[in-house]
Amino acid sequence: MADSSFDIVSKVERQEVDNALNQTAKEISQRYDFKGVGASISWSGGDKILLEANSEDRVKAVLDVFQSKLIKRGISLKALDAGEPQLSGKEYKIFASIQEGISQENAKKVAKIIRDEGPKGVKAQVQGEELRVSSKSRDDLQTVIALLKGKDFDFALQFVNYR
To answer: Which SUPFAM superfamilies does this chain map to (predicted)?
Structure first.
């Protein structure tokens, strides 16, 4: 019998992030507490997100609205890397980015947890920015998924290609 396997990835649906950003921009334009503070959110150069407002509190509030929209769209906040508010002229700005892919270092951490705490006979291989987990027993794979869901990593994980 062939081995069963699944992949562990860290991917974010770009369209969902775009939708969350557009919803945030719409809410900022309509909310009373954001009137006249120059609050805005937009894409800036590819995959960077720029949040702006005229006070540190307002720019943090814009970030808070954006985070709530991401959660509603099923995107883990672990994928959002937001910096600290920076004063630029009269504006406060926060640069944020969406993290995708599992770094080699993080993939090795996950593979070590699977080796140390997972069932015997489960193999984990790093393949670029993802991790392939395989075993003869599908039950062992389910156990590995449960084990990893119980751990708190500082990056988002998804389990795909289960077969």
So the answer is: YajQ-like
Q: What is the token pair recorded at 20?
A: 């969350």
pTM for this one?
Answer: 0.81
Of 47, 63, 98, the residue that ends a domain is 98
The SS3 assignment for 125 reads strand
* Spatial distance between the Cα atoms of 147 and 102, rounded to a whole number of angstroms: 18
- Residue 8 buriedness (CB in 10 A; 0-12 / 13-18 / 19+): buried
User: What does the chain come to in residues?
Assistant: 163
Same domain (yes/no): 92, 106? no
Query: Are residues 93 and 107 located together in one domain of the fold?
Result: no
Structural domain span for residue 86: 14-98
